[in-house]
Each structure stands twice: as C-alpha cells, then as structure tokens.
Design a protein that fits this description.
Helix content is about 15%, strand content about 40%. With about 425 residues, the protein is mainly beta. It has a domain at about 10-15 and about 25-90 and about 125-160 and about 160-195 and about 400-430. A hairpin with a 5-residue loop joins strand 20 (about 295-300) and strand 21. The longest helix has 15 residues, at about 95-110. This is Glutamate-rich WD repeat-containing protein 1.
Length: about 425
C-alpha cells in the first residue's frame, strides 16, 4: 500500500554561484541568482504573498508556480516553489580580499572560528524548495491569482485542457516542515479543483482579471477565446460560444487593469484586438497588421492606457489605446534579432517594461528616456561609438540564459525580475531599475 512506502524526498532545486563567474559583471546587478529545477519550465507566475509590498531589505523571499516541459509527457509537474535567502550580490574588492586572507591566517590557528565561518556561509546561501503536482502532459502556460483569499493557479495543458488548482496545501507545506512531510506522504495525488475541456485544441493565451475576482480568459490555437465566470461552489461558467474574430492561433490575452469587462488579445494573424464582454462577440477595436508577422505577446500597463506587444519579427511596439484607431504605435523598438517571447510592464514603474527574445537576451526599457543632445567629451564620444545604434530607451541587456521563454517582475519586490529558460531560472535586479 502507498501508506507503507517511504515518503518521497523533499524536492529541491540547485542554485548556481554566479559570483565566481569571471565573465559575469557583478557591478551591473544588485542581486543575481541562477537555479535549475530539473526539467525546464516553459511558463511560471509569481504568487502574491503576505510578506508585504515594496520590500527592499535583503534577503528576499519569493513564491512561484511553474509548469515543466519534460521529455516524457507523464513526467511533467506543476511546481509550487519558495525561493528564500536571496541575498545582495557581493563584489570583491582588494580590501575585501586582504581581509579574507587575514581571516584565513587567523582560521589556521582556530578551528572553531573556521566552523563558524562555514556556518555563516551556509546561512547566506539561497534556498529553493518546492511541492509538486504530477501532470499528464506539458504545461504551456500557468497563471496564479489570489481569489477570495485562496491562491489559485490556472494551467493550459498541451493535451488541450485548462485546469484550476487550489494551491493551499502546497503553500502550507512550503512554510511548515511538518506539513511538507505530510504532503510528501500523501496517498492520493492532488486533483484540479475544476477542469475545462471545451477548447478544441491546446493553447497558450491565459489571464486572470485583476478587477473581477475569479474571472479568466483562455485562448487556443484554433482562434477561439473563452471567458470564465466564477460560480458558487468553486465552479466556473464558460460560454459555449467563443470569441472568434481572430483568423489564427490566439497567442496571448490580457484583461484590462482598469475596465472590468474589457480584455485584449493577439494572434498569429498579426492582429491585436480589444474586446468588451458586454457586447456581441466581435472585437470592438482591431489593429489588423500590428506586426509584420505573428504577434506573440502583449502586456497591458496598469497605470497608463498603453499596451506593449512583441512579435515574431523581433520588434517591440507600444500602443496608446487613446490613439488605437490610428493603427499606429507610439513607439517601435528594433533591437531583438529573434522572435520576442515575453513582455511585461513593471508594476512599480509605469514607464518601464522588460522583454525577452529568442536571441537569448532579456532587455529592460524606459519610455521616459530621451536622446541627450548636449555636447559630449571625447571619452563620451568613444562610448557613444559603441552604443550609437542602441535605442536610448534601452536601459539594460541581461544575458546568460538560453531559449528564454517567459519573464515576470515581482510586484512586491521593486525592480526584481524572474525569468525562465531552457537553462533554468534567473532571479535578479539590475542597477538600472
């Protein structure tokens, strides 16, 4: 029987020490951590926690939910993880090295001091534990939201179903060792709280409403979008008739952060569409040729009426919804040399957004920056030669990951970005934001 078996080992991830990487420019970051979770995660989301907003004091703690992309379908997992002890990066100076040498000399004469130092080093190391849920297929997209004080995660499966998961047990296990033991010894695998199989095929577009608790939008690769309305008893009502003005796969969907009944979508048909759920199921606003090829991702600014989009053409565009009928973006950035895979506005700074691409770059942008036309010195002229082709709004280029799939700002830790790639997770904050 299952209850007689030994409990599975507590699952952990491996953090890499980037501070020992000579090619890594430590001065450009205030924090930088790298972690692997075994199978890479195609998608993840930040879970809102109760540790407070606008956290600036180190070390940091972050909770995430992620979906794996394992080589075998039945080896996939939904991972609920806690990253803790995320410390500020240390930059070695000549003075620090001299102090370490002096400490090493003293340690030779005092074994107890050496043991204490080792303990301090261990105490400063980042830690990542997770409580997982077995899946039968790859998770294309996952999004988390706190609904009526319960943390829910919606997952888009490669098999074509959309599942809602109650993450209460997993989060409790992460914060309590005894509950973790009980979770690992469970006899039955957790099951979804709700499952929708009404889509005709798999999809990637998925978003919870920020304004109306429990409202969800899902879009599939067969051009259909469904809107979910929560009902009593932990279920959802999904209209049988979808929103289907798109002529190709729906790649992303975003609820308006200010208007409860409005959402936007983008598609391989090159368009961006804005919908109102109170009207007939035709888009009320359409930008037919928003990009020269597939529109992969969009993000809706929480403060200003802007949507940023990223396309297969590697181009990033910013759209002012007040001027959307002109069909012209207010900003166009051509920096990435491969398809844009993720974009997101900084929830703590309305002029800043981040983007990632198939060129293994994660970029940070600030729309408030303008070209400086003042006279420059000769040294500045030399620096200008190296950066003259870069847009002035480009704040930072983060590298080191391969095949970056998704990024998110941490809404409660200003400036912190988390990204997932084929090579694992990066958690960092640059000196630019």
């Amino acid at each position: 029987m299952e209850s007689r078996k030994r409990p599975r080992k507590e699952e952990k991830a491996v953090f890499s020490n980037v501070e020992n990487d000579d090619e890594f420019d430590k001065s450009a970051y205030s924090m930088h951590h790298v972690a692997q979770t075994g199978a890479p995660c195609l998608s993840f989301d930040v879970i809102a926690d109760k540790l407070g907003a606008n956290r600036t004091q180190f070390p940091h703690t972050a909770y995430l939910v992620a979906g794996t992309q394992a080589s075998l379908a039945n080896r996939n997992k939904l991972i609920v993880t806690k990253m803790s002890n995320l410390n500020k990066i240390k930059i070695k100076t000549k003075e620090n090295e001299d102090e370490e040498e002096d400490e090493d000399d003293d340690d030779d004469d005092d074994d107890d001091s050496s043991d204490s130092s080792d303990d301090e080093d261990d105490a400063e190391k980042p830690n990542m534990i997770f409580a997982s849920v077995k899946q039968k297929s790859c998770i294309n997209r996952v999004r988390a939201r706190n609904v009526n004080e319960t943390t829910l995660a919606a997952t888009w499966s490669e098999s074509g179903s959309v599942d809602i998961w109650n993450l209460t047990d997993q989060l409790n296990a992460l914060d309590d060792p005894q509950r973790m033991v009980a979770y690992l010894r469970r006899e039955k695998a957790p099951k979804p709280a709700f499952t929708f199989t009404g889509h005709s095929t798999e999809g990637f577009a998925l978003d919870w409403s920020l304004i109306k608790p429990g409202y969800l939008a899902t879009g599939d690769c067969n051009k259909c979008i469904h809107v979910w309305k929560p009902q009593e008893g932990g279920t959802w009502q999904i209209d049988e008739r979808p929103y289907e003005s798109h002529t190709g796969s729906v790649e992303d969907v975003q609820w308006s952060p200010n208007e409860a009944n409005v959402f936007a979508s983008c598609s391989v048909d090159k368009s961006i569409r804005v919908w109102d759920v109170r009207t007939p199921k035709e888009a009320m606003l359409v930008v037919a040729d928003a990009h020269d090829s597939d529109v992969n991702v969009i993000s809706w600014n929480r403060t200003d009426p802007f949507i940023v989009s990223g396309g297969d053409d590697g181009v990033i565009k910013v759209w002012d919804l007040k001027l959307i009928e002109t069909k012209k973006p207010v900003a166009v950035f051509k920096h990435h040399t491969a398809p844009v895979t993720s974009v997101e506005w900084n929830p703590n700074d309305s002029t800043v957004f981040a983007a990632s691409g198939g060129d293994d770059q994660l970029t940070q942008w600030d729309l408030s920056v303008e070209k400086d036309g003042e006279m420059e010195t000769e040294d500045e002229d030399e620096d200008e030669d190296e950066t003259k082709d870069l847009p002035p709004q480009l704040l930072f280029v983060h590298e080191g990951q391969r095949e970056i799939k998704e990024l998110h700002w941490h809404p409660q830790i200003p400036g912190v970005v988390i990204s997932t790639a084929n090579t694992g997770f990066n958690v960092f904050r640059t000196i630019s934001v």
